[in-house]
Amino acid sequence: MSLTLAEARARAASISDVSYEIDLDLSDHASGTFGCTTTVRFRTRAPETFLELTAATDLTVSVDGVALPADLTGSSYDGRRLRLSGLGGDTVVTVAARVPYVTDGDGMYLFTDPADGETYASAYCGMDIAQRVFACFDQNDLKATVALSVTADPTWTVVANGRVSDHDADTGRWRFATTEVFAIPMFVVCAGPWHSRTWEHAGLLFGWHARRSLAAELDRDFEELRGTTTACFDHYATLFTEPMPYDSYDQAFVPGQNWGALESPGCVTYRDELLPRGRVTDLLRSQRGAIIAHEMAHMWFGNLVTMTWWEDTWLQESFADYMGYRVAADGAGFAGVLLQHELLRKPTAYQADERRSTHPVAPEAEDVPDVDAASNNFDAISYSKGNSVLRQLVTWLGDEAFLAGVNAYLGAHRLGNGTLADFMAALDTASDRDVLGWVQAWLRTSGFDTIRVTRDGDVPVVSRDGSRPHRLRLTSYDVGPGAELVERESRLVDVAAEPVRLESWAGLVVVPNSHGETFARVVPDAESWPALLAGLSSIDDDLVRAIVWTTAFDLVHTGRLVVDDFLDLVSRHLPHERHVTAVAAVLTRTLDVVVPHRVPSEAAAAAIDRVADACARGAAATTEDQLRVELTRGLARTSRDTALLRDWLSAGVTDQGVDLDVALRWRVLHRLAEIGALEAEEIEAERAADGTIDGELGAARALAARPTVAAKDAAWAALAEDDQVSNRRFEALTGGLWSPEQAALLAPYVAAYWQVSPGIAERRGQAFSQVVHRAFPALALTDDQVADLEQALAGDLPSVLRRGWEDRLDDLHAPKS
After folding, report:
1. Percentage of residues in the chain with pLDDT exceeding 70?
2. What single DSSP character describes residue 599?
3. How many CB atoms lie within 10 A of CB 83?
4. How far apart are CA 252 and CA 274, in angstroms?
């Protein structure tokens, strides 16, 4: 049973002064369970309450020193909730139990590294997940201190929310200093033979940690990681008046993390894919820098001040998303990082805001009735749209007033909880503008406006379809003799009820919202758009080019740009694109969205061939190493030239001089398998030679990609019949299974996907439901297959899977060219 808003409010009204002493025994990981003893101290004004603890065995409970009956099953404990009665005043509850390790990333995740056989046990929490690790009040507004002890293999290192206070190397016993209060869903512990690099800065202990088999990679990147961390930390100190409230700041690259990263106070965990073997591209460095800045922002937005209930997810995620890109650029020096938001993330927010599942950035609390419903709001609305809306707020309000309001909010609610009303009140005191009206228009309503350019004769006229105030940049261009575009002028304008005439721009090409300051659909005028299509790659400003690319993404999504014309745009301009983020974004959008879902299956191969040709021409022509690498990755994903790909494998380098690192080699192997040019024996030999988790997952993906019934049957059996399959392996299997070029072969597995996915999602919970719905068939569905999906949606589905499938159905029903 998911915690409801009513239950959370009632429990918060009766419980206060909570603290935890937690003792974890991770020494016997071979048994499949770990030991946990938790002492919870609290004050209560009600005679009854409940703690959450999921799937516990060998359970013993005492209340104020009095042991409860030995058999609690059914009466006081239902497998998830431990009901307590006869309470009053200061109360002490001690709960001892065995709790299962997990393979899905929700709870105490157990991982054995195939590279060296070492084992790691890491608790990744979040909504309704801390209860899978220890007995607790699993809600945000019952913040508490935590005193943690851990017994582990003596060769292991343990990191957690607090600073280490004592360590007995002989027994593997670790004790951590009692933390400052934090929201219990953000508990973390990471135990294993970590390779660690530590330092001190500004009076705090800092550390980076990674699996022992990634020691060389951590050492390789350590100076950059340390520099990014300290630069972000110092920059936040210039923005926020409240200091970070935790006594240490560890960061760990961990296996099996479901999120890109998780902002647990004092110890942030990252997917260890962010510490790759082989090449570290500028694009990955920039993305990683933005994530580091994002997670550090949560030390204030989420940990110092925590949302009271999940309707205010935006108060954490929108702010961290906005601050992450801002501080990565201004503090850590990752120039151009905003292109990631504009090209890779913001387009998904527009798409999300047109689905039936759209919601305001800041919904009402009653619109999020329980935690299951809340899990669906960790989406492109709360992250990317919220980021965009905050950027518009700063543009509209001014940075000084914005930061003054932010600091008033953080100071007033330090170490407590906050709501939209609290933030509005703080912002309202910092500005004489109509903040409350702005909040109502932008945060309390869903959907987006359209910024439209028309012509009155030769004069551009900018107008708004909608009701929100917009402050945005317009940029104008002359068209040169070779269709190149030469910037004439750029200006900020306010667009509201009255259209804006641009008399001095008569006859010029106009790009509205040219630096992405607002969140609105852009409809260029009929004179400007052909010129932009022809001259896109000649635009000097990277951000303006990004906006034109995203306009094209939106136009093809809505059917106003036919797919062939979009592919013409890619063919013409991708080889000449000058920013690596734009190259990656265009390839991602084309190959993951347009080709699988907008191109009929019989035309998919020809569309992929056009992308391969563009990548080949671009890789051959560019003098920039980073662009060559990204275009080569695109070519490795799309080429059907077997001889070329095999030559790359044999030489370990491409004909353009790009080394085949681990990721690129497995991409080539996957493509050869997908086009039927690689046998299982060759894949197995590559897996054995690799010897790491990258090889295990790469081989699973490549084996599943082969265009044979036997290969698809084997992949399907592995992912559909094994309830212990890990989240990463499931992703690898489905990533190989689906191919837009294999639609006829895959028809039986599409039908099976509708049938078995609900059961998998029901058995394995919220996070794995996300994994399952992200495994949606990546190919053009027939009308009959769409009808089968609609029939499946008519049945009883877990809420997370239902949301994912309904979103995909809405995308399928979007207008097509």
Report:
1. 99
2. S
3. 13
4. 11
Q: Which class for 473: exposed (0-12), middle (13-18), buried (19 or more C-beta within 10 A)?
A: buried
Q: Is 32 exposed, middle or buried (0-12, 13-18, 19+ CB in 10 A)?
A: exposed
Instruction: Read off the tokens for 650.
Output: 């044999």
The string of pLDDT tens digits covering residues 691-731 is 999 999 999 999 999 999 999 999 999 999 878 899 999 99
Q: Is residue 518 within 8 Å of residue 395, measured between CB atoms? A: yes
Query: What strands lie across the sheet with 267-271, from one edge to the other?
Result: 195-201, 204-210, 248-254, 267-271, 261-262
d(CA 232, CA 300): 13
Express each pLDDT in 569-616 by its tens digit.
Answer: 999 999 999 999 999 999 999 999 999 999 999 999 999 999 999 999
Give the distance from CA 215 to its chain's centroid.
25
pLDDT for 74: 63
* Residue 741: closest CA among 604, 636, 606, 638: 604
Give me 365's structure tokens.
């609390």
Tell me how many degrees the CA angle 502-503-505 measures, rounded to the nearest 5. 70
Domain ranges within the chain, ordered by starting residue: 1-193, 212-364+387-415, 738-817
Amino acid at 486: V
Q: Say yes or no: domain 212-364+387-415 is CATH 1.10.390.10.
A: yes
pLDDT tens digit string along 369-409?
Answer: 999 899 889 999 999 999 999 999 999 999 999 999 999 99
Residue listed under structure tokens 């008519």: 794
Residue 154 in contact with residue 136, Cβ under 8 Å? no
Write a three-state SS string for 128-158.
CCHHHCCCECCCCCCCEEEEEEEECCCCCEE
Cα separation of 219 and 373, whole Å?
42
Task: Provide the 8-state DSSP code for 27.
Answer: S
Distances (CA, A) of 535 to 455, 483, 576: 20, 5, 11
pTM metric for this prediction: 0.97
Asked if 670 contacts 661 with a C-beta cutoff of 8 angstroms, the reply is: no
Give pLDDT < 50 ranges for the chain: 817
pLDDT, tens digit (0-9, with 9 covering 90-100), for 186-205: 999 999 999 999 999 999 99
Residues in the chain: 817
Exposure of 56 in the CB half-sphere (CA atoms within 13 A): 32
Name the class of domain 1-193: mainly beta
* Gap between the Cα atoms of 209 and 446, Å rounded: 41
- CA-wise closest residue to 53 among 105, 123, 130: 130
Using DSSP, state whether 525 is helix, strand or coil.
Answer: coil
Instruction: Output the six-digit token pair for 567.
Output: 């592919």
Structure tokens at 706: 């082969």
